[in-house]
Specification:
binds phosphoric acid mono(formamide)ester, Rossmann fold, 9 strands, binds norvaline, alpha/beta
């Protein structure tokens, strides 16, 4: 019998996890990563199958889930773009109830959070949000793992996110609240995060001795921060607004001058894909303090841990 409290559960956003479960995923990821590097190649999900449905483009998420499933011993069933499970208009109910006859977990990247929630409602097996318009929990787990690797801890650190109050901003608010971090956002007034997400995170943050501060400029958010993060100003689905957004985000670029306001030894992070020269300069992306490729690699380790815990395999 497996005593892990995550077995059989879904992860549609980071707040689906308790602070203890969030920590468990990170510890499991660190252990599995070290084991793999040491040549210990266990396959805890042998004989299982995982559907990976991509309704938006992806490099990191698709690669890391597909290779992660393979390394866990499970078969990855990838359905993407025009050939995704939902592309012919079949209902979410019918699609999910058919798919669950074949697979043991469903990973879904889509637009509306409500669609991920509906799949989870119908599926008796775990469902993982691989990015929606509102949240990107797998990226949050990978980023937390990366911060722990470089800083030794999460608790008490100051994380500054500069840019769009989007799915990544929401995810960092949730990460900080779960891990006891001080989260500062610097966003243009017209691109603030969802007030409901902020309120939920503020409630949890206050219990954890953490804090949330939201500014309408980048410099205040970054002052003295231990970690500086940004994301594209034009998320998937916003492409038609690209030129308008370039103007709306003026003054929110992460460049060398902004990084100089952060704490000594501060890290730069970006979930990628980056639009170099827009939200971030080459100078910052390629600096010694930039950990963007560690962050990308850790998608694999964080998701392997999440999958094996939700599937009750560890
Ligand atoms: N960071 C991330 O989710 O990248 P992809 O869109 O390439 O999957
Ligand atoms: N905010 C971005 C994140 C990409 C990983 C998007 O939704 O496109």
């Amino acid at each position: 019998m497996n005593a892990n409290s995550l077995a059989g559960r879904d992860c549609l956003r980071l707040l689906d996890l308790t602070p203890e479960e969030f920590e468990l995923v990170l510890q499991t990821a660190a252990k599995q990563k070290a084991d793999w590097a040491a040549g210990i190649h266990e396959a805890p999900c042998a004989g299982k199958a995982i559907a990976i449905i991509m309704e938006k483009p992806s490099l990191r998420t698709r690669s890391s889930f597909e290779i992660g499933a393979y390394r866990l011993g499970a078969h990855p069933l990838v359905m993407s773009d025009d050939h995704s499970a939902f592309s012919r208009g079949e209902t979410v109910q019918d699609t999910t109830l058919v798919l669950e006859r074949f697979v043991d977990a469903i990973v879904l990247r889509t637009f509306e959070q409500s669609k991920v929630a509906e799949v989870a409602k119908w599926s008796k097996n775990p469902v993982i949000n691989a990015l929606s318009d509102d949240f990107h929990p797998c990226q949050g787990l990978a980023d937390a793992l990366t911060i722990v690797e470089h800083k030794g801890t999460l608790k008490g650190l100051t994380l500054a996110y500069v840019g769009d109050g989007n799915n990544m901003a929401h995810t960092y608010l949730e990460m900080g609240a779960l891990a006891g971090m001080h989260v500062r956002l610097g966003c243009p007034a017209i691109h603030m995060p969802d007030a409901r997400v902020v309120a939920e995170c503020e409630q949890l943050a206050s219990q954890a001795g953490a804090s949330i501060e939201i500014f309408e400029n980048a410099a205040q958010a970054v002052a003295g921060a231990d970690i500086v993060l940004t994301d594209t100003w034009t998320s998937m689905g916003d492409e038609d607004e690209h030129d308008q957004r370039l103007a709306e985000f003026e003054g929110f670029q992460v460049n060398g001058e902004l990084m100089a306001r952060a704490a000594q030894g501060a890290l730069f992070m970006h979930c990628l894909p980056a639009h170099r020269g827009e939200e971030v300069t080459d100078e910052v992306m390629d600096a010694p303090y930039s950990v963007i490729y560690d962050e990308a690699e850790n998608r694999l380790h964080a998701q392997k841990a999440l999958l094996s815990l939700l599937m009750g395999a560890v």
